[in-house]
Amino acid sequence: MPYKNEDGYYSCLFGEHLLDVIENKEKAVMLVESEKTAIVCAMHYPEYIWLAYGGITALTNEKIQVLIGRKVILIPDMSEKAVAIMTKKISEFEERQIDVKIWDLTYGKTDKVLMESGWYNSDLEDVLRTDKTI
């Protein structure tokens, strides 16, 4: 359900309208930070619904309301901070009966290791367009 800010605009998950498509009713939702990542991943993996929350601080309780009753995979960008912030958000999903899991693309690597390997703050779209391993 949309909500409006003081300027009269409302914010929602990028691609949120796809939740209402009949063919998508049983699909799991892949939730990424970047709109670009949602678009590219949707082309590679159409068996999922790809939505974006539009920034690390933009995933609000209001935005996740539309995910009630859905299976969600939350895919934060590759940094310790992003993973920590999204890990804390799990309880907000669970309070709303949203089945959520995190796909941690850092695989436990520190920011230092991610920086040295060129993956710090990368996302799944970056992985798809390169030959490098994480």
TrEMBL record:
All residue ranges annotated as the DUF6371 domain in the record: 9-78
One Pfam entry name: DUF6371
Official protein name in the record: Toprim domain-containing protein
The species this protein was found in: Olleya marilimosa
